[in-house]
Amino acid sequence: KQREIQIVNRQLKARLLQERRVARTAAKDARAKERANQAAERRLRQQARKAQQQRQKRLKTALKGS
């Protein structure tokens, strides 16, 4: 009887550790995804700003030429 209890306890502990590991990697993946999203947003904003600056510069030179 005692032996069975030990075996069950060991199985439960192993399952708990496994679930904890899974949860930790899931959290890590979520953080990585969030970081990637922020980096992508930053890149998009920079590109938009650059395009806007180029438009203004082109407009300026066009006005200067006329």
From TrEMBL:
Feature: compositional bias, Basic and acidic residues: 26-44
Spans annotated as Disordered: 26-66
Compositional bias segments (type: Basic residues): 55-66
Highest taxon above the source species: Eukaryota
Protein name as it appears in the record: Uncharacterized protein
